[in-house]
Design brief:
This protein is of the alpha/beta class and 335 residues long. The protein folds into 2 domains: 211 residues, Rossmann fold, CATH 3.40.50; 100 residues, Rossmann fold (3-Layer(aba) Sandwich). It is 41% helix and 15% strand. It has 13 helices and 10 strands. The strands form 2 sheets. The protein has a 6-stranded mixed β-sheet with strand order 1-2-10-7-8-9, with helices on both faces. Strands 5-4-3-6 form a 4-stranded parallel β-sheet, sandwiched between helices. Helix 7 crosses helix 8. The structure holds 4'-deoxy-4'-aminopyridoxal-5'-phosphate. 4'-deoxy-4'-aminopyridoxal-5'-phosphate binds next to helix 8.
Length: 335
């Protein structure tokens, strides 16, 4: 008899390993654990949200036979949606800012999504990918706009799956959780669930440059400065999903921190991660320093480095951006 069989693409989403990062556990004296979301079948944490948004829309009658899924995305939600769409027989239209990695754009085309690239403009501009996706959905018959920023089926996927997995995998002994935020789906769902289980779990955001969330958490106002090479994270407004988050504080992390950590983890731990995952691990180190030795700290490994190979792991690109790693994470450890 066959055992442990999951049904199709959807059935393979979730139940990802929680990986201890030995080198960082040793250095910090805490147990540093990364939820391996890059092992989802679409390669990122956003597979969970894609599936929940589509299945909720089916239940609500918003997505019907022969329908089209439309979404504005930095890429990963689009990849998840494109695969769910193929598996369930829908058409998929993805609107994406043109400054995202060529790997993600190529992949979406390969998967069969209809990709529309728009200029990376401010949210206030009607040409922003968010507003463009909304308009596209209105112009296509039988279309469903997933609206991952405001659709709480996104954070619900993490409340119902990611967070209970973390709770169970740590035997409820988790002391701290930290991650960055894009739509706020992961941080919203995961921290809401964990704080219900144990309000003493230290819950932190790590925010890249160019995002207003750090100032929102620390001072109560959205205020952003600078820019970042990280993809899929950072935002300068509140979203329904982010407002579910239960947070105790926030850190900021730089592009150089993220690049340094990504290269360090590849070399020392065999973990090949994207920029948001690397920044999240920077956050885990910062939280370990804040909480002191002996704690169990969890973060999210959102996607893999292959999705950014031509950028973060390309010496010429790194040199152009003045982000050549030194090979040491001392600056992060002693910051
Ligand atoms: N990392 C990457 C690479 C992403 O694509 C996203 C999604 N935009 C995130 C992190 C953030 O996830 P969330 O939307 O749940 O905040």
């Amino acid at each position: 008899m066959t055992t442990n069989i999951c049904l199709g693409f959807a059935g393979a989403i979730g139940n990802t390993p929680l990986i201890e990062i030995p080198s960082l556990s040793k250095i910090t004296g805490c147990q540093i654990l990364g939820k391996a979301e890059f092992l989802n079948p679409g390669g990122s944490v956003k597979d969970r949200a894609a599936l929940f948004m589509v299945e909720q829309a089916e239940k609500d009658g918003k997505l019907k036979l022969g329908g089209t899924i439309v979404e504005g995305t930095a890429g990963n939600t689009g990849i998840g949606l494109a695969l769910v769409a193929n598996a369930k027989g829908y058409r998929c239209v993805i609107v994406m800012p043109s400054n995202q990695s060529p790997e993600k754009i190529d992949l979406l085309n390969t998967l069969g999504a209809e990709v529309e690239l728009v200029a990376p403009v401010a949210f206030s501009n009607p040409e922003h990918f968010y507003h463009t996706a909304q308009r596209r959905s209105q112009s296509i018959e039988n279309a469903f706009w997933a609206d991952q920023f405001e659709n709480i089926a996104n954070s619900e996927s993490h409340y119902q799956t990611t967070a209970p997995e973390i709770w169970q995998q740590t035997g409820g002994a988790i002391d701290g959780i930290v991650m960055s935020s894009g739509t706020g789906g992961t941080i919203g769902g995961v921290t809401a669930y964990l704080k219900e289980k144990n309000p003493d779990i230290a819950s932190y955001l790590i925010d890249p440059q160019g995002s207003g969330l750090y100032n929102f958490i620390t001072e109560g106002i959205f205020k952003a400065a600078g820019t970042s090479i990280t993809e899929g994270i950072g935002i300068n407004r509140g979203t329904a999903n982010f407002y579910r988050a239960k947070l105790d504080g926030a850190f900021q992390g730089s592009d150089l921190d993220a690049i340094e950590m990504a290269h360090y983890l590849l070399k020392h731990d065999g973990l090949f991660l994207g920029s948001s995952a690397a920044l999240n691990v920077v956050g885990a180190v910062k939280l370990a320093k804040k909480l002191g030795k002996g704690k169990i700290i969890v973060t999210i490994l959102c996607d893999g480095g292959g999705r950014y190979q031509s950028r973060m792991f390309n010496n010429q690109w790194l040199a152009e951006k003045q982000l050549v790693p030194t090979g040491s994470i001392d600056r992060i450890l002693h910051d």
